[in-house]
Design goal:
Strand order of the largest sheet: 2-3-4-1-5
CATH superfamily of the largest domain: P-loop containing nucleotide triphosphate hydrolases
InterPro entries: AAA+_ATPase, ATPase_AAA_core, Cdc6/18, Cdc6_C, ORC1/CDC6, P-loop_NTPase, WH-like_DNA-bd_sf, WH_DNA-bd_sf
Keywords: Cell cycle, Cell division, DNA replication, Hydrolase
Family: Belongs to the CDC6/cdc18 family.
CATH topology of the largest domain: Rossmann fold
Order of helices and strands: HHHHEHEHHEHEHHEHEHHEHHHHHEEH
Shape: globular
Oligomer: single chain
Number of helices: 19
CATH architecture of the largest domain: 3-Layer(aba) Sandwich
GO molecular function, one term: DNA replication origin binding
GO biological process, one term: DNA replication initiation
Length: 440
């Protein structure tokens, strides 16, 4: 696999040049007095971009109808995180979809109870895919976000109320829940999002939940969703010892082309109202892949649409200039630490591997070997070699490091562009990685 070189490495430099080109193409020159051309510093370029946007917004057409404005508002709502789940926005994840569907089919057709644990970084589509599958499924199910449970021991009284419409005391809630599911004649599927919120010191609540489907007296199955890759292995080891461990489904982070496809799918629904230039969309996708949360892509597109809106017009075109302005505003002051913190967990694992080597002449192969050790120490499965190279390419795209020598992919030498202290500060408080820094 060939390492991808970023054609757009910095939002604040090359992208502004692209924006300037776009401005020249999209805006016809007005007849005006020419002034001598003066070489401007970079900050003048920024001001020129902002001025163009502000001038566009002053072009007001007072004759636009309220209906047209409402249609544009509806089109914008497609990019809100709360957009209607019944619309088929979802793209990709066919393998994950098939695994979940097979799990549900086994419950329905074979009366086979079970448990499934879905893990992956925030914004990688776990909950969205689950919601879409449930929308089309005929199985009796209850969906509950565990963030709504004030403390873990309240989960059973919450489930009794939500599944069976009954009230119970906190003390009797587990027995009440168990007796009701034992009496149920139809298969029931519980989907518990953010299930790691129920984690206690001894894990007793999660043990009870994951053990229930294996009781011979009920027809209940459980799907748990969380970010942690090693929740069951690390915090619930007794499940494995008893042969009661759930099936694990890991959602890998999105790649640039996948993020682009997701955003394009939404744009298809509103193509008569909203257009986003291809380069602007690529800029957005590259920024999102560094963060790992596709929901940020929706936020960026929506913000860019609002920047591009011209009062009194029925449609919007988002240019590179608009996207540059949005992405520049999203950059935090402590950029290196923030940039690393915003990466997905696999990127952080690779950076921790680099940090542990503490050597001036580190190759991709060196980091891969140390990364495999890191994965074993934190008790999680690592990436394949091709997936590892994708992560390395992502770190290059985001400016974390670059490759200094030519040759085979794994023999390339790595040049770090952030300090090792930044890696430590950004990663040491990550729950899954904190044990790696305890002796420092």
């Amino acid at each position: 696999m060939r390492t991808r070189r970023s054609i757009l490495p910095s939002v604040s430099t090359e992208t502004q040049d692209l924006a300037a080109k776009d401005e020249a193409i999209s805006s016809p020159r007005k007849k005006q007095k020419r002034t001598p051309k003066i070489d401007k510093p970079d900050h003048h370029k920024n001001m020129a971009i902002v001025e163009k946007i502000n001038q566009d917004q002053e072009n007001i057409n007072p004759n636009i109808s309220r209906e047209a404005l409402d249609k544009l508002a509806d089109a914008k709502s497609i990019f809100r995180r709360s957009a209607d789940n019944t619309i088929d926005f979802y793209v990709g994840r066919q393998k994950e979809r098939d695994t979940i569907q097979e799990f549900i089919n086994n419950i329905q057709s074979k009366n086979k109870n079970g448990s499934l644990y879905i893990a992956g970084c925030p914004g990688c589509g776990k909950t969205a895919l689950m919601a879409q599958i449930l929308e089309k499924s005929k199985i009796v199910h209850t969906f509950l976000n565990c963030m709504t449970v004030e403390e873990p021991r309240q989960i059973f009284s919450k489930l009794v109320a939500k599944v069976f419409g009954k009230e119970t005391t906190l003390k009797d809630s587990f027995e009440c829940f168990k007796s009701n599911i034992d009496a149920s004649k139809k298969p029931i599927l519980l989907v518990l999002d953010e299930i790691d919120q129920l984690l206690t010191a001894n894990g007793d609540i999660l043990y009870k939940l994951f053990e229930i489907p294996f009781s011979s007296n009920n027809k209940i199955s459980i799907i748990g969703i969380a970010n942690s890759l090693d929740l069951t292995d690390r915090f619930l080891p007794r499940l494995k010892l008893k042969g009661l461990e759930p099936k694990i489904l890991h959602f890998q982070s999105y790649k640039i082309n996948e993020i682009s496809d997701i955003l394009k799918k939404r744009l298809e629904f509103v193509k008569d109202r909203i257009k986003v230039q291809d380069i602007a969309l690529e800029l957005c996708s590259r920024k999102v892949v560094a963060i790992g949360d596709v929901r940020k892509g929706l936020d960026f597109i929506l913000q860019a649409i609002e920047k591009a809106e011209i009062k009194g017009k029925e449609s919007v075109e988002v240019t590179v200039a608009h996207m540059v302005q949005v992405l520049n505003n999203s950059i935090q002051p402590n950029s290196s630490v923030f940039k690393i913190k915003s990466l997905n967990i696999q990127c952080k694992c690779v950076l921790v591997a680099f940090y542990r080597l503490q050597n001036k002449h580190i190759t991709v192969e060196n980091v891969l070997k140390e990364y495999e050790i890191v994965c074993k120490q934190i008790g999680t499965s690592g990436l394949s070699r091709s997936e590892f190279l994708d992560i390395c390419s992502t770190l290059e795209t985001t400016g974390i490091w670059s490759f200094q020598t030519k040759g085979s992919q794994f023999q390339k030498r790595i040049q770090l562009h952030v300090s090792t202290d930044d890696i430590k500060v950004a990663c040491q408080k990550e729950k899954i990685l904190e044990s790696l820094f305890l002796n420092e």
